[in-house]
Amino acid sequence: MDKKRKANKFNILFVALIVIAGLLLMYTGNDALVLATEKKEGILTAEQVQVSFDSVGGRLVNEAVNEAQEVRKGEVLMVLDSTDIDLSIQQIEAQLAQLEAQIQSAAGTAAISMSQADTDEQQSFRQIDQQRAAVSAAEASYANSSLEYQRKLQLVGEGAVAQAELDNARMALDVAAANVTQQKQLLSKLLAGVYDSGDTDSLSLPTIELQRQSAGNRLHDVEALRQQKRALEVQLKELQVKKERLTLRAPEDGRILKILAKAGEMVSANTPVILMESKRCYYDIYISEDIVDKYKEGDSVTGVTVNGDREVPGTIRLLTQAPGFADLKMTREKGQSDLTAFQVRIYTEPVEGVIPGMTIGVKLR
After folding, report:
1. How confident is the model at residue 13 (pLDDT cuts 50, 70, 90)?
2. Beta strand extents in the chain (DSSP E only)
3. 3-state SS class at 361
4. Which are the contacts of 68, defined by CB distance < 8 A and separation ≥ 6?
5. What is the pTM (predicted TM-score) of this model?
6. pLDDT, tens only, 283-336
7. What confidence tens digit (pLDDT) does each residue in 28-44 have?
8. Residue 279 and residue 355: Cα distance in Å, rounded?
9. For a surface tag, which of 86, 279, 298, 321 has the fewest beta carbons within 10 Å of its beta carbon?
10. What sign results for the dihedral spanned by CA atoms 281, 286, 289, 290?
């Protein structure tokens, strides 16, 4: 009987301890609900990057990396066959060389034509000067013959000379007049209809202007060839860029998770061929709307790893309403209604020993 009474007392004491412990947890805020409102935890996740060939496709000839390999930004990952592009580049380079030769030849011809026009102009100017002198000489000869004829005419009237001398003087005057006319015609031919101002260097001779226009047309031909060359140079740059894109490089530091294409396969443009894990890591926590005003994008947040208690600094990059499944269902035993949850995405800074998959806790403000 004593043993039974003693056992009953022990059971009553045990139940009392449980009740007291529950009450203490309830009123001191150590129950699961209260703990959930003081600290949130999230799984550290690394962003994944799908890597593809930019706007080019072809046969894969080289896999430069393996799965699980760490790579640095700019490191070669894969290479496509460049035979067709190499041939196209060689063809355009040959066309550029041919065009350059044509440009040099046409430019040389235009320069020679322009120089020839300048030379011909100076020669024409000198011929005009000489012809002016010839006209002046002819006019002087005519004037002299005219005076001689007038003297002979007077002397014949006085009977001092014979009629034959007058006839000779008349013939010399006619010859001198014809010579003046001839020399003026030659000067007019050299002037080619241009008004003779007397200043030779200011003359603009039509024949010389035609030569210069012809040389100018050759310069236009040279410019047209240069434009063709520029167009080919653009095509060459496009091909060189396309060839560069045949070599796939790591867009950032990271680790190769999966290789989706193998050597010898045909790869389409912009189709993922490598799945890569980047060094950019984040974790999400969910907070209730009654404390959301304490956080904003750009805030610094320091989390602590569950394993090892390492501090992990980070920055809030995203603060938005969480999906419906993440709403906080608060118990009504304490008079709390259901609250909308907000997703907080925190991007972390690299910390030695902290790797994706670890749980990180954040003490709420």
Report:
1. low
2. 39-43, 45-52, 58-63, 70-71, 76-80, 247-249, 254-259, 266-267, 272-288, 300-305, 311-321, 341-348, 359-363
3. strand
4. 255, 256, 257
5. 0.62
6. 999 998 888 899 999 999 999 999 888 999 999 999 998 876 555 444 433 444
7. 444 444 445 578 899 99
8. 10
9. 298
10. negative
